[in-house]
Design goal:
The chain has about 190 residues and is mostly helical. It has one domain. The chain is about 45% helix and about 0% strand. The protein is built from nine helices and two strands; from the N terminus they run ααααβααβααα. A two-stranded antiparallel sheet has the order 1-2. α1 crosses α8, α5 packs across α8 and α7 packs across α8. The longest helix is centred in the N-terminal third of the chain and has 18 residues.
């Protein structure tokens, strides 16, 4: 899968941000506590949506499930000025109940729609197993009891490389292009 330079750059910055939050100075895993603290600081963090999206996106770590991975793969090919409106992309994403308030707060910001698309893309990259080496390490290595939300099949099993071909024989890229066309975007030929 092709990543735009924008998402290629942010992917490693997001992974580094999560890694920085993962352990304290004594090496204890404190990711959940630090994420909870960061979520409480949302009123401050909204001022950094455009300057440091990878830092703010951590408040939505584990907030999304991706039942339409083709839509996410299409999103990841786009540059920041070409991202869809959040409400269009939202039809391809499930938001965890605990994150609904955060999403509403973020969407209310001037750059909120843009940021939510970026955050969803970063979470998809971080959680996806089927992107392999392009996505880097697919787990955040935390030892918490809560497992991260990941791109899953309808039966809840993680996606694999075999899932890149839809049941009707279309590739994930073709499925993504079809989905984007259904949302009103022009097809890339």
């Amino acid at each position: 899968m092709h990543l735009s330079p924008f998402f290629h750059h942010l992917r490693s910055a997001y992974a580094a941000e999560l890694e920085d939050l993962r352990c304290d100075s004594e090496g204890l895993v404190v990711l959940d506590q630090r994420l909870a603290q960061r979520r409480r600081e949302i009123d401050f963090l909204v001022h950094m949506l455009e300057e440091s999206p990878e830092m703010v996106a951590t408040v939505l770590h584990r907030a999304f499930r991706f039942p339409v991975p083709g839509a996410m793969q299409e999103l990841l090919t786009r540059e920041p000025e070409d991202l869809p409106e959040w409400d269009r992309l939202r039809t391809a994403i499930e938001v965890a109940d605990w994150a609904q308030g955060l999403v509403a707060t973020l969407q209310a910001q001037p750059a909120g729609d843009w940021f939510l698309c970026v955050a969803a893309g970063l979470e998809y990259l971080h959680a996806s197993h089927h992107l392999g080496a392009e996505a880097g390490d697919s787990t955040d290595g935390d030892d918490s009891e809560e497992s991260p939300e990941q791109a899953d099949n309808e039966d809840g099993s993680p996606l694999s490389a075999d899932d890149l071909v839809e049941s009707d024989g279309r590739s994930a890229e073709e499925a993504a292009a079809d989905w984007m066309a259904e949302q009103g975007f022009e097809r890339k030929e």
